[in-house]
Amino acid sequence: MCSVFKIKIQMLYSKIEGEGKPFIIMHGFLGMSDNWKTLAGQYVEAGFQVHILDLRNHGRSFHSDEWSYEAMVQDVFEYCQANQLTRIDILGHSMGGKVAMLFATTHPEIVDKLIVADIGPRFYKQHHQDILAGLNAVDFSVKPSRNDVEAIVAQYVPDFGTRQFLLKNLYWKEPGQLAFRFNLEVFNNNLDAIGKALAADLVFNNPTLFIRGGDSGYILDADFDSIRQHFPNVKFETIPNAGHWLHAENPKMFFEMTTEFLKE
């Protein structure tokens, strides 16, 4: 007598809207699909079937001790298989852009066009220490209110916009008990993973768009040549007077640049 064990694949949480060409959107570190809700609706109106994902250890997706770009790419691949997505366009911001780059270079048979928002394929050293210090300073065992949490985080993160972005992750785990949706413990233990460079031999030959914020230092002119080595069919755009959250600071220009590229 033999037994058959089925391994259950943990599937990413997503919001799917619209009809047309499948278009996957992936958020950055400490973000979630909700950050892209407004733009997603505009892409739907432009004729796309939009899939905004929560990557592992973020948003409403599952938590896992394994947190790497390879694991996140495998999650997206399994998501595409489960949803029968055989040809897609894909967009990723920051950490999500790193996932999108690795996905496109390892699964080019699935990706028609790639959009990367304000991140490059090079290595980035740790620069989230103040943010993580603020998040770790919150003691949920004393059942703080939302205002209490914000006051604690504000001591480490003075920028209002960044703080509001982070606090979108607060939710009521149970009545009277707030928590963060993301897996802070895993991030604390493996923060180096977020800055990992794309392997030198990986190449994606299909049309690619890199968009940077004019006031952001994540993509420099000096990075263009190395980006072309990975993405020879690349186009560069800059949104003036925008920082790292360029899609939130100037959503109109971001939408126009991306839809023009997607419809070329």
TrEMBL record:
Domain AB hydrolase-1: 21-119
GO-annotated molecular function: hydrolase activity
Taxonomic placement: Bacteria, Pseudomonadati, Bacteroidota, Flavobacteriia, Flavobacteriales
Family matches, as InterPro entries: AB_hydrolase_1, AB_hydrolase_fold
Name the UniProt record assigns to this protein: Pimeloyl-ACP methyl ester carboxylesterase
Record-linked SUPFAM superfamilies: alpha/beta-Hydrolases
Pfam name, any one: Abhydrolase_1
Keywords: Hydrolase
Signal sequence residues: none
